[in-house]
Amino acid sequence: MSSHQYEVALFGEFFSRDLKPILNRITFYSESSHPMQAREIVFEPIDAQYQRTHDVPGGSQEPLLLRARKDLITPLGGEDTGWVLYSYLKPESVRAHPEATVRPWATCHVIGDALSFANALGYVRRSQIYKRGYLFRRGLLLIQMFQQEQVDPKTQKPIPAHSDTLWEVEVKTAAPIRNSQETPLSSAIEQVLQVQTFMKGLLDLRRQDV
């Protein structure tokens, strides 16, 4: 068995005019839902440009990105959970997992100044966005449905999304899964495919290599 921990995911997008029927169907099949607003910052290694242009074992490559996420809305009665730092490795091949995106990932909760912590690890900020929408829970899955909001360069506050901004949907395992007899990847894949099935006809959920 691999020592990696994995995320299993499917992705989709739709136009604002389809929001109500998609929202209703996901709500019907979910155990809970609440509004979502999150700030996400992408970091890259200080030597990212060097990694892209110079030969390393296996040839030049895209540097490993570090992402920081902070939920700005907590469920009623919940506590501020601080920042989560996470990073993905390259997704497993489509031959191994043709139905869903399966990629190794690692997460780390940070209380306090996560941005300085990322800097101390040798990373610099590359980009920042806000996400606003809805968060659903279904078994071991999280379903995020959101529009991206850009950042005002003067105030660093989010700029409300335009009415015709695409909605994005991410159906993914809520926590890293270690492929074992107790928690086989096949079970997680089956659960995300169930969401793909009940959204058929309204929303095309698919695998993507990112």
UniProtKB/TrEMBL annotation:
It is found in: Nucleus. Its main location: nucleus. Keywords: Activator, Nucleus, Transcription, Transcription regulation. One of its GO terms (biological process) is regulation of transcription by RNA polymerase II. InterPro entries: Mediator_Med18. It comes from the Eukaryota. One of its GO terms (molecular function) is transcription coregulator activity. It holds the Pfam family Med18. Transmembrane segments: none annotated. One of its GO terms (cellular component) is mediator complex. Component of the Mediator complex. Belongs to the Mediator complex subunit 18 family. Component of the Mediator complex, a coactivator involved in the regulated transcription of nearly all RNA polymerase II-dependent genes. Mediator functions as a bridge to convey information from gene-specific regulatory proteins to the basal RNA polymerase II transcription machinery. Mediator is recruited to promoters by direct interactions with regulatory proteins and serves as a scaffold for the assembly of a functional preinitiation complex with RNA polymerase II and the general transcription factors. This is Mediator of RNA polymerase II transcription subunit 18. It comes from Marasmius oreades. The lineage of its organism: Eukaryota, Fungi, Dikarya, Basidiomycota, Agaricomycotina.
